[in-house]
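user: can you give me the structure for this one chain? tokens are fine.
assistant: on it. calling the predictor now.
[tool input]
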Amino acid sequence: MYGWSIDRLRKLTANQWLMVGAGGVFVLLVIFMIMVLFWSDTRFTRISGCTVCHEIFVNEKEYAPLGDLSTSIEDFNPTREFDPGHFNVTIGCGECHAYPYNEYLDSPHYDSDFGVRPGCVGCHNPHSLAQVVKWKFFYVNRGGVGESPFHAISNSMRDIPAWEELRVELAKNVRETMIEEKSEKCTVCHKTESEWFNDIKQHKSMQKSSEKTCIHCHYNLVHGDVDWDENHK
């Protein structure tokens, strides 16, 4: 078969050789275009089609919650397991949210002396697989098709200035959610009935008032600094 192929190549006419050459050039151009489109000059660079969605690849155990259930109100172990539900996305946090993930790795929430790690879902409400599909393929904004949150976030992964601009809006949204939830996720590990908690004067004032929760004072603990929005309640 190999010899037959060589013989066939030898019999190609000039026009046929031209077509073969043109086809080869076309393939090379396509490969070059893919490399340009998916190029990233960040430290997460991976030149491949995978960078459409993923900038880095990490073991999901690195951002999964860690720590046995609490046995005392004075420890920092969680009082309940962080189980967001079967159809919620808890794998892929580090790949899709590359910059905030690397900030998380440098924070006390990732590495502490207590042997406890809340993980991404310890603070953030995970989104479902259906939401990912809807945001990526079927996003409709006020009756018209527009740029989805998926594209805004995925684009920012390859552009630090774009991420810094998006960070402010995302921080605002997360803080509003935590205010509405009265910082419920914080108290899973930081128990308000503990002695160490009540020894702090500001904590006592907070418990007497219904206007403030943990997030009003304890923000910028894990991710890059974003000023507090005075419009928050």
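assistant: here you go. Residues 1-37 form one domain. The chain has two domains: 1-37, 53-217.
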